[in-house]
Amino acid sequence: MSIRLRLVLSYVAMLLVPLVLSVLAVILISIATLGNLKSVFQVDFSQGNPIKRVVDQELEIVAYMKAKAEVEPDIFLEESFVRDLEERLHKINMGLIIRKDREITYVSPYLKQAEAGDTSKLPNFGTSSGKFQRNQGSLWITRQQDFIFSDKSKGSVFIFLDGSTFQKYLHQFSKSVIFTFIAILVVTNGVLTYFVSRSIIRPLRALKRATEEIKDGNLDFEVVPQSDDEIGELSIAFEEMRRKLKQSVEIQLQYEENRKELISNISHDLKTPVTAIKGYVEGIMDGVTNSPDKLDRYVRTIYNKAADLDRLIDELFLFSKLDLGKVPFQFEAVDIGQYVLDCAQELQFDMEKKGVHFVLNELPQTPLFVTADREKLKRVLLNVIENAMKYSDETNCAIRLEVKEFDGNAVIQIEDNGQGISEEALPHIFDRFYRADPSRNTSTGGSGLGLAIAKQIVQEHGGRIGATSRIGEGTTVYMVLPLTKQEEHAQ
To answer: What is its main location (predicted)?
Structure first.
């Protein structure tokens, strides 16, 4: 669930939950208040609406008084009749006032005890509106019945309701409702805020801890997403960043190790021919070359060592430029079968002079076009073939070249019958400055950059290079180049 949806739902819950709980609380408080009213009104509350029953009893008494006023108006001056009305009204917490002209003939006892006040403020004869009227204090006039006594004097009967009881319970009811609503609102908002904020704060604290661990250099501290919302997505992105950062640091450390190894290897490979040149030059200076033949041999050795040194520097410079991506490539569509045939015909004469039996297997029947740089790809073929010749028997060296199509790619295979490569060394032969010969003899092992350069060039072509080998049987180096699509070739 997203944070936005969670917040919206929490806002809705903060409105609806207090409202629903408040309604329930009002109902419960009303029931409690209604129960307290049982002590005020002597009415059967177990049947029907108690308020309606109180009103019905009042109407019944009023109808009874109205009938008596029309037939026997003077009966309102009799004490027994008035006492009977008083008792019936007292059951529903009501009182009675009887007035004859301006004289009050009867007042309910509880009204006197409550100090009902100035009865002269009672409504005048014939002013009844049929509605509840407020007299004064807590007394409310519910009914006014006017009639004429037998002596033609004006009479009025007032039914009063003691509102103090209702005011007391209404005050308690209002106060309970307000306090309950505030409590419900505070508790509901507090609980919802706690749970919503916890679902946000806890993942943020986990991310903060992860940043502190990474700041301290601990890149192994894994961040586990705790939700599927935006913070969960942030945690996933943070974890991905941590992994990439760890991988980058590991690669950087590996690069640093490779750099140290590269410097060491360069120092060794450059020092070897320089030391040899220095030794032969010192021999000439010391007069060791006391014959023209010996001098010629020394000079040729110096020249060969200088040539090896120059070739090593060239290969090192080329590899560095390839590694930095600063070597320009002139790519074009090339029929790889015809291209390999041309290269083989160009190399065949030189290899026959060196006693190498070179065989070009049958080429594909249909053209196989690849996007390649002709010069750079030729450099790959030369490096692989030269490497094959160095590790083969000079008297029985055979190299077979083959081109075929496989799974949408053009595959070039160069197979020799040399001494083979061990399983331990095979995965490293394309590493820079790696030689299977631990003595690092340049006469047999080369500079250690030839196959590394070949790998870089093939990768720049979008392909890959690999090798298979068996000790004593030979080695096969294969290069896989993606074929050019027909529409690209047509263009």
So the answer is: membrane
